[in-house]
Design goal:
The chain is an alpha/beta fold. The protein has a single domain (about 60-325), classed as NADP-dependent oxidoreductase domain (TIM Barrel, Alpha-Beta Barrel), CATH 3.20.20. It has helices at about 5-15, 20-25, 85-100, 115-125, 145-155, 175-185, 200-210, 230-240, 255, 275-285, 300-305, 315-325, and strands at about 35, 45, 55-60, 65-70, 70-75, 105, 130-135, 160-165, 190-195, 215-220, 240-245, 290. Helix 3 (about 85-100) packs parallel to helix 11. The protein is globular. Bound molecules: NADP nicotinamide-adenine-dinucleotide phosphate. NADP nicotinamide-adenine-dinucleotide phosphate (NAP) binds near residues 276, 293, 296 and 301.
């Protein structure tokens, strides 16, 4: 079956052809990993450079605990079921992540097989102790349903503790957040949070943040979806709430918007050599953001994303230039 993500990638590449070679290298696996060197003309490809350096960290306001700023999501990317072939690249995606010192992984019981796949791969790599695992109370109503779902998440993820338990998309918020706090009291959860992924839900999320003061909020933010700058970020700073950013690539659509454009020359000023790194540095240049969770199924894209967590972020001029470059 062709997934929505594969369909997007295929149509993007088919529509744009050879002119897209540099960005195709950012979104398709090849036997020899390639990446774009911004100093070379469009189309010039060089061997992929491994991740080097130390990831920036930011503190969770409610505890002071430091988290690496690059995390990862699992929606789509880890929904691959039991097949060994489909899981193999994800093993490497996870290895590169852990080897770089990253730790925050976001999943949900309603991302089809993602919790099972992640749980199996973490157990095989014995990586659970190095990770900050976030999952959700998702689509459930009432305490008993939420509790049963949480028990299943522990089983599927092969763990006895969740670092961050979030109420997914503001569904049954009062009851599910109360349950998450109860589990926190029992030591089964370390932090509680609320999530959404659309600008039009941010007013409701703001109201819930004020009323309930969770440890974390998770929300969408990118150079083309900037509502959180006016709503979520100022309030998170005021109330001392950590911010996890989803959809930093607009579920991949941002790459289609820059597909025929070379990475700007000024990217080198912040040590970036790909659009992905610029998009992630844009998100992280907002001081309210604690961690961003791009999702990828490809090892070389994981390395690309991790590189955004090292070195300079974007200043105001560079942020404006990036927004203009996307057009
Ligand atoms: N309500 C909620 O709580 C909520 C809602 C939405 C998302 N989330 C969370 O946030 C995570 C991230 O959001 P998302 O998965 O919707 O989308 P996203 O991270 O904005 O975009 C993912 C897409 O970007 C591509 N990509 C990743 N790195 C790349 C790179 N370096 N170069 C080129 N393409 C790259 C991926 O393709 P490849 O696989 O080919 O790399 C994939 O198609 C989710 O996985 C989930 O954990 C939560």
């Amino acid at each position: 079956m062709v997934s929505r993500r594969d369909f997007l990638a295929t149509t993007t590449l088919t529509a744009t052809g050879l002119a897209l070679a540099p960005l195709a290298a950012c979104s398709q696996d090849t036997p020899r990993p390639l990446s774009v060197d911004p100093k070379k003309p469009a189309g010039a490809l060089t061997a992929e450079q491994p991740f080097r350096g130390t990831l920036l960290k930011r503190a969770i306001p409610s505890s002071g605990e430091q988290l690496p700023v690059i995390g990862m999501g699992t929606s789509g990317s880890f929904e691959v079921g039991a097949g060994a072939d489909a899981r193999e690249p994800l093993r490497e995606v996870l290895k590169r992540f852990v080897d770089a010192g990253a730790s925050v992984i976001d999943t949900a019981p309603t991302y089809s097989s993602a919790e099972d796949v992640l749980g199996d791969l973490l157990a095989q790599a014995q990586a659970r102790p190095k990770l900050f695992l976030a999952t959700k109370l998702s689509g459930v109503s009432g305490r008993e349903e939420g509790l049963a779902q949480f028990g299943e998440s522990l089983r599927r993820l092969k763990t006895d503790k969740i670092d961050l338990l979030q109420v997914h998309n503001l569904r049954d918020t009062a009851t599910q957040l109360a349950l998450a706090r109860e589990l926190k009291q029992q030591g089964k959860v370390r932090y509680v949070g609320l999530t959404h992924y659309r600008d039009d839900a941010q007013a409701e999320l703001v109201a819930e943040m004020r009323a309930r003061k969770p440890d974390f909020v998770q929300i969408n933010y990118s150079p083309v979806s900037r509502g959180a700058e006016r709503t979520i970020f100022p309030l998170a700073r005021e109330l001392g709430i950590a911010v996890m950013v989803n959809r930093a690539f607009e579920d991949g659509r941002l790459f289609a918007q820059v597909r025929d454009k070379p990475v700007p020359d000024w990217a080198a000023e912040v040590g970036a050599d790909s659009w992905a790194q610029l998009f992630l540095k844009f998100v992280l240049s907002e001081p309210a953001v604690t961690v961003v969770i791009p999702a990828t199924s490809k090892p070389k894209n994981q390395t690309d994303n991790l590189k955004a967590g090292v070195g300079a972020l974007l200043d105001a001029k560079q942020r404006t230039a990036l927004i203009a470059a996307i057009g």
